[in-house]
Amino acid sequence: MTVVSQVILQADDELRYPSNGELNSITDFFKSGEMRVAIAEILTENEKKIVEQSSRQLWQQRPDFIAVGGNAYGQKQRAQCLRDYSWYLRLVTYGILAGDRDPIESIGLVGAREMYNSLGVPMPGMVAAMRCMKEVSLSLLGAAEAAIAEPYFDYLIQGMDSVV
């Protein structure tokens, strides 16, 4: 839910007008809008590069994942890992655009444990993968853009780390 939606719903629940602080948070949300859109564009345009570099980085750190018996051994398993990278990167861009972590939580983290456990995918591996994706993604952004994007990657990583 965006800042605007949150403010309106909370004020309405309490049968009041939005406070000055809440109105200021909406103003800040709109002021950062162009940059949030620019960040989403950069991440979207570089999705393939981010996925490739992130996975390469992960396989270098954890060659056991792509070795015989590893969770990413074989073409099908590796393709599924790369698909998940893209999916989580997309969720991060949703969060950045919304100015809210809810899309990451509601779409990406709810059920992650059950899904990955049922597939036999160790969550520490997913956490390591998301850390690689964060590093590669932030390297494509300027300092101000990275400061906006980083908390969304961190939220995803912390959320996955807490389901270990």
Task: Describe what is shown at a glance.
With 164 residues, the protein is mostly helical. The chain is 77% helix and 0% strand.
Tell me the helix content.
over 70%
The total count of helices amounts to: 9
For the secondary structure, the number of strands is 0
The H-and-E topology, N to C, reads as HHHHHHHHH
CATH class value of the largest domain: Mainly Alpha
Q: Estimate the mean pLDDT confidence.
A: 90
Describe the structure.
This protein is mainly α. The chain has 2 domains: 1-31; 33-161, Phycocyanins (Globin-like, Orthogonal Bundle). The chain contains 9 helices and no strands. The chain has helices at 3-13, 20-31, 33-45, 47-61, 75-98, 102-109, 112-119, 123-139, 143-161. Helix 3 packs across helix 9 (143-161) and helix 6 runs parallel beside helix 9. The longest helix has 24 residues, at 75-98. The chain is elongated and about 60 Å long. The model has no long low-confidence stretch (mean pLDDT 90).
